[in-house]
Automatic annotation (TrEMBL):
Source superkingdom: Bacteria
Protein name: Pseudouridine synthase
Matches recorded under SUPFAM superfamilies: Alpha-L RNA-binding motif, Pseudouridine synthase
Catalytic reactions of this protein: a uridine in RNA = a pseudouridine in RNA
E.C. no: 5.4.99.-
Organism for this UniProt entry: Acetomicrobium thermoterrenum DSM 13490
Length: 307
């Protein structure tokens, strides 16, 4: 029998897929997305999209077993997270490369599973929920909501772009100065990659600034003006400067086993979480990226001076 969830003010304006991931963290993401696409999950009796924003009073019908019965199988991972900031509402961490943001199956190690262990909250019905995602092989600063109200606030902050994110990347070749890369992007379902499509792609823009340039590689700061999947990686490859280690988007991968891309800082604006407004949270560079920067004789001194 399907379970019916009636949306209250805590989940007003939350995306359907985010709501379901919170309620059914033990269910693989792929299973949730398939159920939405096939119309097995409905809102007010109608098929809808994963991005649909729920409103107070909506009724969500879900075919999965009641999450209260699944709670006992939750895989709480007793592994560390590097905490940058934490209070009763928000957890901000420095995610290591190689770690999933959210589990794709019950057995997966992920930020969410580790956060559950960190806050020792396996009995409550709220599961720490990322306000945004980082690719598995990307490291850096990441924010999670620890209760429904902070989830709603963080969702609004990211949706309304009241947040500034800065990434650091080591890229091939010499890049000097600063500028904006504008190239429309879309998902290619055949190659399962994000590609530039000037005819039908969605508007995508990335601001860049060179921090240290050499003949073989450069250290750059990146600001995603829009937020498309793999945007930074594709844009840099598009202008002939793929991220070192990013084999998927054109690099040889000779010097690094993963893309040398790190979410360096996150700054929150607006009144949704007013006590955090204007605060900037920074994640130190991981050791493998520091080694690659040294390998190309690039300077780290400019990071503090220019960011």
């Amino acid at each position: 029998m399907a379970k019916i969830w009636k949306i209250d003010e805590d989940y007003d304006c939350v995306r359907l897929d985010r709501f379901l991931r919170k309620k059914y963290s033990q269910v693989p993401l792929g299973a949730i997305m398939r159920a939405i696409r096939k119309g097995k999950i409905t809102v007010n009796g109608e098929k809808t999209e994963p991005s649909y924003r729920l409103y107070r009073g909506d009724e969500v019908s879900v075919p999965f077993e009641d999450p209260a019965k699944l709670k006992s199988s939750l895989n709480v991972v007793d592994k560390p997270l590097e905490v940058i900031f934490m209070d009763q509402n928000v957890l901000i961490i420095n995610k290591p490369a190689g770690l999933l943001s959210q589990p794709a199956s019950r057995e997966d190690d992920s930020v969410v599973n580790r956060a559950l262990n960190l806050i020792n909250k396996t009995k409550g019905d709220f599961i720490p929920t990322p306000a945004h995602r980082l690719d598995r092989n990307v490291s850096g600063v990441m924010a999670l909501a620890l209760n429904p109200r902070s989830l709603r606030a963080l969702t609004a902050i990211f949706r309304n772009r009241r947040v500034a994110k800065t990434y650091l990347a080591v890229v091939r070749g010499c890049i000097s100065g600063e500028g904006v890369i504008e190239a429309p992007l879309e998902r290619d379902e055949h190659s399962l990659k994000t590609v530039v499509n000037k005819g039908e792609g969605k508007r995508s823009a990335t601001r860049y600034m060179s921090l240290s340039a050499g003949n073989r590689a450069s250290l750059v700061a990146l600001e995603p003006i829009t937020g498309r999947p793999h945007q930074l990686r594709v844009h840099l490859s598009h202008i002939g400067h793929p991220i070192v280690g990013d084999v998927k988007y054109g690099d040889s991968g000779k010097e690094a086993g993963r893309p040398m891309l790190h979410a360096y800082s996150l700054e929150i604006f607006g009144n949704d979480l007013s006590y955090l407004a204007g605060r900037k949270f920074c994640a130190p560079l991981p050791a493998d990226m520091v080694i690659v920067i040294g390998l190309f004789d690039l300077s780290l001194d400019t990071i503090r001076g220019m960011l």
